[in-house]
Design a protein that fits this description.
single chain; alpha+beta; four-stranded antiparallel beta sheet; 19 strands
Length: about 750
């Protein structure tokens, strides 16, 4: 009360007969929050003309940048020319932000609100007539506000109906399913001292984020550098890259740079140079030639411009106490030109790795045509198939600490030659990784720049691909078991009828993998709920099995009955009950939120919210839940019926397909992808067609239905997908285009029974 007296209307003190102390209370003002004016620096687009900006770029003497002998000087001159043009057409101005934006608040509503305020004399007089007058005005103002909000919101959606980005932005405003980012603390604890100076806090954050990777690596007791140098590179090279084709940079053309820029998102945060991506996109045709020229020069001389190596870091609170810096994650923003350069190199390197099949099939992360759903489906089908065979499946789920921050530069540079990166290409990657700096921006204050000694650049385009290269050869450490990767989410698993056999295999392979992590300066997170072990199997098989113990350096790994893997809660019997209950609660809360805002939006917008905010939650990894019970199917179908009632009200205007139909169509699309090379390589030949020597109606069209003995086998994606696909008309089975296949599946709803 002493800190914020304006929030309290009245303090109450009453004598108490049950204690020596009086009872103390207060009446709190509910809506007394006031927004203090604040100043921000932003670009002024009021007088911006795209054609004039392009003309200025055309007349810019880019030849002066080409004439520079030093690559960094040439790049800096190009950036300076660009910055001058940007500042001229879109200058940075200081603006004062007062209160909250209320575009729906009209002059008539303000007059009514004033009239309502003056009618509060009822509190003083206490007369019923005055109270009745006040209530009428209060209700009238409430109706006006609701009507104005609804009209304003619907108008915004109508204006943005053909602008997907604006529509999505407005949708997130009126349907906030995620909590907004919590504000940063104003006081932090550092070395048992409290600091409140903004610049000091920014410097402490920068030092913390810069040193976090090396601090974690220092906890590794083994001499990782010595171990790495002792490894046999020739054997690893033969296994990972038997063709030994070299990777070489290709000169990029203005057309390629133009295509890269056009694919960039307009509204991305600006780096420290304050050059907005939207203006880069507007001037793409004029910038393509100078950018391609200097990028080719950089590649030829094995230089990555120093000006593009410094990200701006913003600390964002994750959880727990706000005054502790460990509870913040760094959000990194790189200069926009670095993204253009990196995308060009990424396209060349990824194409080379893909064409030479150098990336492991077990890695599902940062790969085209791959997703978390593919990883979960493949892992789940393995467990169900072995359940059907009467086997148990043991799985160790491995978690790494701050993996992108702990990537060792020396290790990465040592591994690149294994994948054909030599000579000037290798020197370019050295230039890209070394001599990097970063700074922290905290509430308008910037820290001093500090050097980065390890880790791949977060927020970069090349970073994830470089991490994939570092972790790619981990699959060579697993001989008797299997391994599955999605970025740094790793699971080691194997199946057998004997639980002791599973224990021996997993202990051996897990320790091999842990040693590999240590040798590569990656830090295991052995905390509970992070690295855990699950033994999967049927109720009967698990009841008869002996206890399995998994350990690392005499430290026991926690065994759990369920684990959340890539967003899916997998229990030891794979009943998926816990996961389905979690999904049901989430979609139910979103349905209630839709009901609260329905009066502000049109039926079409409400239908869109269902399709992009509610239905995807029910369909995520739906291929592992095709055999769910009728009880759960009915639960989700009731959600659809409830949403339909919310959208339509008394009028039947919108029709939504059943959730089961949507789930089955999603399954059929994945089966189509598996058969046509549009899925990860592990799903190649996953479904097998029935082949006959004699010509029959079903020859080469139907899929071979696997023989199963148990309910677990019948719930597998392999069984359910084959069963659903075989029900399709023969003409649809012969379709080659995925778009036509989806379109024809949509048309099956009314006339075809899955």
């Amino acid at each position: 009360m002493r800190g914020r007296p304006k929030q309290f209307a009245k303090q109450i003190t009453e004598a108490s007969s049950i204690s020596d102390h009086d009872l103390t209370g207060a009446i709190v003002k509910k809506n007394c929050q006031k927004f203090k004016p604040r100043k921000i620096f932003t670009r002024n687009y009021a007088k911006y003309n795209e054609d004039n900006f392009k003309e200025d770029l055309k007349s810019t003497p880019w030849e002066q940048a080409y004439a520079e002998r030093d690559i960094n000087t040439a790049w800096n001159k190009l950036k300076q020319f660009l910055k001058n043009a940007v500042d001229k057409h879109v200058p940075i101005v200081e603006r004062t932000i007062r209160g909250r934006e209320c575009s729906w608040l009209s002059h008539d509503i303000k007059l009514k609100m004033k009239e309502r305020y003056h009618s509060k004399k009822a509190r003083r007089s206490g007369k019923e007539a005055d109270w009745s007058s006040y209530r009428r005005l209060r209700n009238a103002v409430t109706r006006l506000i609701r009507r104005s909000k609804a009209t304003h919101t619907r108008a915004l959606f109508r204006e943005s109906i053909n602008k997907p980005k604006d529509f999505w932005k407005q949708l997130k405003k009126c349907y906030p399913v995620k909590d907004s980012r919590s504000q940063q603390a104003k006081v932090f604890k550092v070395n048992d001292k409290e600091i409140d100076d903004k610049r000091t806090i920014a410097n402490e954050f920068c030092q913390f984020f810069t040193a976090i990777g090396k601090n974690l690596q220092s906890n590794i007791l083994s001499l990782s550098d010595i171990v790495w140098k002792a490894q046999d590179h020739s054997q690893l090279h033969q296994k990972m890259n038997p063709k030994n084709n070299p990777f070489e940079f290709k000169a990029t053309s203005p057309r390629e740079i133009l295509a890269i820029i056009k694919k960039m998102k307009r509204k991305v945060s600006e780096g420290y140079d304050e050059i907005p991506m939207s203006l880069i996109i507007d001037g793409a045709e004029e910038l393509a030639v100078p950018l391609s020229h200097l990028i080719n020069q950089c590649l030829a001389h094995s230089v990555f411009p120093t000006a593009e190596k410094c990200p701006k870091i913003t600390p964002v609170h994750k959880s727990d106490e706000k005054t502790v810096m460990e509870n913040y994650r760094p959000i990194s923003v790189l200069p926009v030109l670095s993204k253009v350069f990196e995308r060009n190199v990424h396209n060349q390197l990824y194409t080379y790795l893909k064409e030479n099949n150098l990336l492991s099939d077990c890695q599902f992360g940062f790969r085209r045509k791959s997703s978390t759903e593919h990883a979960v489906t493949y892992f789940s089908d393995f467990i169900k198939t072995n359940m059907d065979k009467g086997k148990l499946t043991g799985a160790v789920f491995v978690d790494l600490r701050k993996v992108f921050d702990t990537i060792d530069h020396a290790t990465l540079i040592a591994k690149l030659p294994i994948y054909g990166v030599h000579g000037k290409e290798l020197m370019w990657f050295e230039s890209y990784l070394f001599n990097r700096q970063q700074f922290v921006s905290y509430q308008g204050m910037c820290s001093e720049r500090q050097s980065i000694r390890c880790g791949v650049p977060q927020g970069s385009i090349l970073g994830p691909l470089l991490f994939t290269i570092v972790i790619n050869d981990i699959t060579e450490q697993v001989k008797e078991c299997r391994i599955l990767l999605y970025a740094d989410d790793t699971v080691i698993y194997t199946s057998d009828k004997d639980s002791k056999r599973i224990e021996d295999l997993l202990n051996t392979e897990f320790n091999n993998v842990a040693t590999w992590f240590t040798n590569n300066n990656l830090v295991l997170n052995l905390k509970k709920t992070k690295t855990e072990f699950v033994l999967f199997g049927t109720h009967q098989k698990l009841a008869k099995s002996e206890k399995v113990s998994i350990s690392l350096n005499e430290k026991m790994i926690c065994e759990t009955e369920m684990y959340e893997y890539l967003g899916v809660t997998m229990d030891k019997h794979l009943t998926m009950k816990a996961h389905l209950e979690k999904i049901y609660k989430k979609v139910l809360s979103r349905t209630k939120l839709l009901a609260r805002i329905r009066h502000n939006i049109s039926p079409w917008v409400a239908e869109t919210i269902y399709k992009v905010m509610i239905l995807p939650q029910m369909l995520y990894c739906s291929n592992i839940m095709l055999g769910m019970s009728n009880t759960h199917k009915l639960q989700f179908e009731r959600i659809r019926i409830r949403v339909l009632a919310i959208i339509n009200g008394k009028n039947q205007r919108v029709i939504l397909p059943t959730v089961n139909h949507a789930r089955n169509k999603r399954c059929l699309v994945e089966v189509f992808k598996c058969q046509n090379g549009l899925a990860p390589r592990l799903f190649k030949d996953y479904f097998k067609k029935i082949l006959h020597h004699k010509e029959t109606r079903g020859n080469n069209k139907n899929l071979l239905l696997p023989k199963v003995r148990t309910e677990a086998g019948r719930k597998s994606f392999l069984f359910q997908g084959s069963k659903l696909y075989n029900k399709l008309p023969d003409a649809l089975k012969q379709e080659q285009s995925i778009m036509n296949f989806k379109r024809q599946c949509d048309q099956l709803d009314s006339e075809f029974n899955f």
